[in-house]
Structure formats: structure tokens, C-alpha cells
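Study this chain:
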Amino acid sequence: MTRLAVALAAGTVLALAASHAAVAADEGPWPEAIEDNSFLIEEAYNQDPGVVQWIVNVQYLESGHVWQESLTNEIPVGSRTHQLSYTLPFVSAGHDVDASLGDVVLNYRWQALDGGERGWWVAPRASLILPTGDWRGGNGEGATGFQVGLPLSRRLSRWFALHLNASGQFVPGTRGTTAGGHDFRADTWLAGGATSLVWLATTHVNFMLEAVGAVGSEAVGDHRTRGTDLALASPSVRYALDFKAGQLVLGAAAPIGLTANSPDVSAFLYLSWEAPVWMP
């Protein structure tokens, strides 16, 4: 975790130091690019008025032979300033073909800063975690939780874009059960940061390097927790297909766990459909 934090900090400082020179030197118009389709992190671009986005993530965890899927729907409210979204997670383990619903997440984002083509974008988020998952089966917290997020984004040049994240989560009364069948509750928390550097290779093809790190606690007994951490580095690629009705983005990643507690993701697939559904 320490090595990842140092790498994140060093990479971010270098990218920020280079960004001013890149923007100043690159005075010509920049081509359009698919900047808002990262996989593990959050960009700071709210949806345009009338344009809705559906996002599907699929990942396979080799330990336990677990498939995790999620569907996210992002909806602008009147203008780019306000955005609502929800995430529906599903988990299927072993040879079970029926996926069970996890904890649904409801999100609100405020476009606090619109940096245009060459400035910073900022979109603070507040989220509510609903206890809809089967916590006894390890597919939910068993209690209502809260999240906050602070994504920042900037186009550095015609070739590169940078995204930074800070986030926190608190779940009072997270539920769990012991091997002997005793149910318990404990308050849990999670705090993390992330960064993503995107190479805008062409208008429709991007290569990304995402890095995510977090520390927190997990419930182990009545009012008892233990510390936990995770760290992932993820090289990935995405490709956009433009249609008259909207834009389809397909992607794949190879996340690499850097700590013992990090998920062992063997495969990660991404699909996004973004389309205008009403006139603003």
C-alpha cells in the first residue's frame, strides 16, 4: 500500500507539473476524444442535458469463481449542474447461473466546476447505500451506508487526460455472522484515493492506466472491527463506436492486486451506451 501511495503521489505531481507546460505549448484546437469512460475511477464530467448513459461492468474473481456485474444509469437533472444515478450490483458464485442483487447505491453529483476544454472539472458526489443485498451470504452490508466522492478531471493536451479521486464511506451497524451462526453488528469505514492517466491515442481508441488504493475497517464481531486495505493497478483499453442514435464504448482491463486483501480480478469487461433521450 505504501509503495502504491508513493507511486500515485509521484505520478500525480509529475502529471500536474507537465500539464501547465502542455496546455501552454499546445495552442491549436484539440480533437474530440472519449474522456469520460474510465473503469475503476470516477471522472468529473456530468452528463449533458438530455443525454443519458448506461454502464455495464463485468468482472471475474478467480478465488471462489465469482462473477460480479453492475448496471449504472446516469441521468442529468435539467442541466449539467445536477446529476442523479443509481448502481445495481449483482453477484453469482460457483456454477450458480442466477445472480443475486447486492446493495443498491443512489448517487447525486453537483458540477461544481466546469473547466471547459483545458481547465479543471470538479463534481462532488453524495451517495446512499441501501441494504438490499444478502449480507449473510457476503453480498451486502446489512445496513444503510453513506459515501462521498470528489473526482477531478483535466485534459492535459491533445494526447493525454488526467483524473484524480478522493472518497470515503461509512456504514453504521454493518452486519455479519460468525462461523457458528452468531449475528453481530459493527460500524465500518473506508477511505481511498485513485488516479488515472489516459492516452488519447486516436479519436476512438484510448489506453489507460488506473490505480486505486484504500484503507478502512471490516466487521468481525459485536462492535469489533479489524483493519483492511486494498490496492489495484489496472492497464486497460477502450474503443468507441459512433451511431446516429448514440455512442457505444467497449473496453477491457487487467487489474493487478498489490496487497493481500486486494481482489484477484482475472478479467474485467466494460460496456457503455450514451444517447440523447429528450430535448433539454
The two ends are 45 Å apart (CA to CA). The mean pLDDT is 87. Residues 110 and 261 are 33 Å apart (CA to CA). The domain at 2-276 is CATH 2.40.160.40 (Porin).
